[in-house]
Write a structure and sequence with these properties.
There is one protein chain. The chain is mainly alpha-helical. It is flat. It is built from eleven helices and no strands. The chain is 79% helix and 0% strand.
Length: 315
Amino acid sequence: MSPTTSTATSKATTPGSASAAEPPAPSPAAPTSSAPRGASRSRIRHVPATAAPVRRAVRRLPYLLVKGATKSAAITALLLLWETAPRLGLVDRTFLPPFSEVTRAWWGLAADGRLADNARASLVRSFSGFGIAVALAVPLGLLIGWYRPVADLLGPVLEVFRNTAALALLPVFVLLLGIGETSKISIVVYACTWPILLNTISAVRSVDPTLLKLAKSMDLSAPRLFQKVILPSSVPVIFTGIRLAGAAAILVLVAAEMIGARAGLGYLVNASQYNFAIPQMYAGIITISAIGMAFNQLLVAVERRLSSWRVPAGG
């Protein structure tokens, strides 16, 4: 090889080898911080996760305030009318005292324990009768609604008793069972049974036939058919009857406690009327209304929990 050729070759390879030996220049966009990447990402994600519920709550606050004010407007107007009408002489305050006097009477009953004792007696009776009615009426309604021979057998008897008011039979219960706890719980059971029973029968008979055909085509057994199709579809209508029965349990019991009872909210209202303690009478009535509303809201919450699979009507 000639000296000229070797000199040209060394000149051609020298720039390439020099560039291969030099380290690459740092990128301008490369991060200069020594903190781990995972930590920065977790911090970036953590801030919106905690701030989002707060922002949603702040945005919903005006809507919730307006909604609460709308719902309480009628009650507030009624209480204002109740307070001002007796003071202005529009009604006789002897028979309708102002709401402030009723409130003081309520606190007096609560302070000496009479309100709690009477409310406890009423709640034990009404919840006992209501629970027995639910335990009896729901299975019987499912049986009558599903099996046509059972419905044909018991249909005439149901028609007779469903049209007989519970309070009309109160003297019969008192004569047969006495004036003790048994007669009062029994009248509550009778009053609560019919709304639950009739709504359960209607719920079973109104199940979507398409769902039944689809379930039968999958060869589901009778217990599985009840568990997967009939019961979920019947829950809303059944709970309509249960809520009606909850209201009936309080109302019928109050009427029953006005006859031969020594404790209970009905007894408190009746005794206050006889003793002309009108504010205490209204305090007992308000307590009955509050218990009925609270019981209804409890049943609504249970219904929502058991029927959470349903799609809301709005979407």
